[in-house]
Structure prediction request, 806 residues.
Amino acid sequence: MVKCMINDPHPPLHKYHQSGDLIIGGIASQNFIVSNSIDFTENAPPVLFNELLTLTKNYQHILALAFAVKEIDENPQLLPNITLGLQIYDSYFNAKSTYHATMLLMSSLKRFVPNYVCDPQNNLITVIGGLDPLTSLHIATILDIYKIPQIIYSPAPVMNDKTPGLPFYQMFPNEEHQHQGILSLLLHFSWKWIVGIVMDNDNGERYVQTVFSLFSQNGICFDFIERVPQIDFLSDLLDKMQESAQIQDKVMESKANVVVAYGESYSTAFFRFAPFVSDLGLAKNITKGKVWIGTIQMEAATFAFQRTWDLGQIHGALSFTIHSSDPPGFHHFVKRRNPTSTTEDGFIQDWWEQLFSCVFPNPFQNNLEKKICTGEEQLESLPKEMFELKMTGHSYSIYNAIYAVAHALHDISSSLFKRRAIMDGEGLKLQTQWLMQLHHFLSGFSFNNSAGDTVSFDQNGEIVTEFDLMNWVTTSNNSFYELKVGKIDLKSSPDQTFRINEDDIIWHRWFNQVRPLSLCSDSCHPGSRKTVKEGQPFCCYDCTPCPEGKISDQKALVLGIFLKHHETPIVKANNRNLTYTLLLSLLLCFLCILLFIGQPQKVTCLLRQTAFGIIFSVAVSCVLAKTITVVVAFMATRPGSRMRKWMGKEMANSIVSSCSIIQAGICAVWLAVSPPYPDADMHSVVDKIVLECNEGSVFLFYLILAYMGFLAMVSFTVAFFARKLPDSFNEAKFITFSMLVFCSVWISFIPTYLSTKGKYMVAVEIFSILASSAGLLGCIFLPKCYIILLKPELNNRELLIKRKAM
Prediction:
């Protein structure tokens, strides 16, 4: 028979106790223990903790628990006449300690007696934890026996046949939203070739199975997926260091510039020795930069819970975090925290020593060589990678979890007890009643917290919140700060769910602030096609010339760039709608050559020259309108000028419409009087019959060319005289060059066209169409694309105004 006199043979190293009518338990994850392996050849020796790594930023999770309970206890409107207490233990990131801590929550405060109620004041009502899925699973296997609800602030663990249906109330959003967010990020930057890094456990495998299929369906391939082992024992340290070096080399040597990392909060501890593996000759000294994309669990803080870590690798990393707000009073609460101001907190002393590299006096240890802690050190002086005063995403989830329990308990007290409840003497009975009701009230409700945010749960009992996309930037003094560069808003419409401010992102220094590319193979140029490489993923291919009789269906990339960056100054300048019209007409110019290919038919003969003439007239008219707009804008700036009434989009639209209508009229007359038709030429080539399109009225055909040439000459003349005017981004100069190329092509076209026969006449016209279209596209838009993609710092309103004033 177990008696209540038995003491705990292995008392916890760290605990936090605060008495109350109802106790909220907490399983913290602040200290990471790496111990020697034990061989049970003899009686089990006492456990020796060889290394205790304190994740200093995780102490804020404990502070969030304490602060929320303090606010609720001081609020007369919430849970009146009932006080909440706290009982917190550390999981130490291992199963044994987690089970032990959970059993301690179920036992008396002073005696370790599982399944016995020796202390009527231990009214455990719920447990908050853990930080990682596996920790949450260990806690749940114990709590499920007692039907005590558990609120987790991590992804739900993977269930197996032995753990079906364990109840979790999740303050962590559904991971599918995070997967979609990473996918949106990859697609936004066209990163199609990536490296995956996951922890070697069930959650890592679930992640691989989920995203591999999701990413593949959207054209994204993995160069490789590396599974990172966990650090269990110090005796395995050398092997782990060697494995770390091998993974580091493999990642850095990969052609992929993007690394998506998924793991537990402590997973980056695997790379703890990365700064030293090169010195030991275990890894190559590779300085190439990568874009690291981290998930919510892998906060950037865990990259640097030691002061000696090199943060250079994470410079420019992108990471999703849970949206958080700062509750009023939290900063003041944290600043007042020190080892001398609290007696119930058993975590703070080790945390304080780790933060300030000092020790508190201990008569059993020789501390003469170390700085003595005074307890008056200032938290404001600490770098952010060690500790933050601002509430982080995980802490905010814990804060909301406490309030969710409090609101649920308040509703229970209002419905179940119509009288003032007295807890003494009825602890077990009342605790059972509270627990029965708490499971029901924790599902599907919402409330407003003190930070002004609405906390709500969906039909599955999962919290509905936002994700923030953060950019981690390191400094020369081995510190870092975070920039919010985007968000995922689950309450918005599907097309507005993912938002990003690309111009705010600071990339790794290796990329020289140019948007990184991550492709296995470059895009194939027009006239070539993709050929899959044997044994390689579909993202890897060779570009081979299109076979005879086939064409390439490459996209209008310049139009896509301008549409994507339509709100930037360089696109808005010089009439954005006119630019789109010009780009669209140039796209049609390239496509109209399809009418010249293949056996002549009645429809193609009627359309090819008329379509070519009208489309080119629209393109040249747009160029002419752009040029005239520059001249009118300059003249309108003169005092007393009457040209101001011509300013605006109406003038440009009128020029394009009128010039195009004239060409369309000529084509209509041609089709009405003497239209082209399929014909057979039996005289041009000896012993061969050439199928061709007879142009019908040759005069009207050359009239179309002449009118197009007239528009080009006018555009060239106006652009030439306007080339030195203060034009935005020097567009007048670019138009001058484009018209020079255009006129040169078509002036040389006429004698060449007249001197050829049969199919070579068609080839000459196709070449002229492609060359002149490419000349317009290249001379006018390539300089702009260069600025948009490679020199984004020049794409700003200040520069635009400065150039106009010059």
Notes: The mean pLDDT is 77.
